[in-house]
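Q: what does this look like with pyridoxal-5'-phosphate bound?
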Amino acid sequence: MMVFENLLDINEKVKSACLKVNRNQNEIKIIAVTKNVSIERTEEAMNAGIQHLGENRDEAFLHKWEAFKDKPTWHFIGTLQTRKVKMIIDKVDYIHSLDRASLAKEINIRTKRKIKCFVQVNVSGEESKHGISPSETSSFIQQLKEFDNIVVVGLMTMAPFTNDERVLRQCFKTMKLLQEQVQELGLEHAPCNELSMGMSNDYSIAIEEGATFIRIGTALVGN
Ligand SMILES: *Cc1c(COP(=O)(O)O)cnc(C)c1O
C-alpha cells in the first residue's frame, strides 16, 4: 500500500474516534514511526503530508536526519542511553522517553536550548518496559525543576501487548488521570498538555481517552 492510502484510512479512523468523544480532530498529531523503513519510504510519507517523524535508535535517527535535516519535526521515541544524548540532542524536537534523573541531567548539560520532553510512564508494570511507575510520576516530574533546559510537555506510554480492549483502555485512562494530577501542580517547567500514546493497534482507543500524539509505524509506513 502507498503511504497516502494508509494515511487516508488512518485519518478516517482518527476522525471517527474524535467524533465518538466530541474531540476536535486537529488536536491529534500523527507521528510516522519510520524505524523499520527506508529513506525512500520516509520521503513518501512526507510527500503524503506527514510532518512528524519518530525514530527509536540513535544511529537510524542520525541517518534519517542527514537525509531530511530540519524539514520534519523529529521525535526520539526509543530508550535513550545517557552516553548517546550528545549525538542527538541538537537535532531532535521532542524526546518521548525521559525516565530517569540521570538522563535529565545529561540532556540538561548537553544543550543550551529548551528540550521538549515526555516523561515515559510504565502503566502496565511489565518488566520489559521502560518508564516511571504511575505512583512516582508526579514526584519525578517535580524533581526535574532543577534542570533549566527540560520542559515536560506531556506523558508517554506504550500500552501492554494485548488485544484486550478493556486492558488498553484502562492503561490510557490511567495516563489521563496522571496528566491531570501533574497539571494540577501548576509547574512552570511541566505544562504537561500532551499525551503520547496509541500505536498501530490501539490508536483509536488512545484517542478516545485523550491522546494528542499517536505514534504509528506498521499501519502507516509498514515494516
Ligand atoms: C515501533 C514503535 C511504535 C510504532 O509501533 P507500530 O505498532 O508499528 O505502530 C510506537 N512507539 C514506539 C515507542 C515504538 O518503538
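The beta strands are 29-33, 52-55, 73-76, 94-98, 115-120, 150-156, 194-196, 213-216. The longest strand covers residues 150-156.
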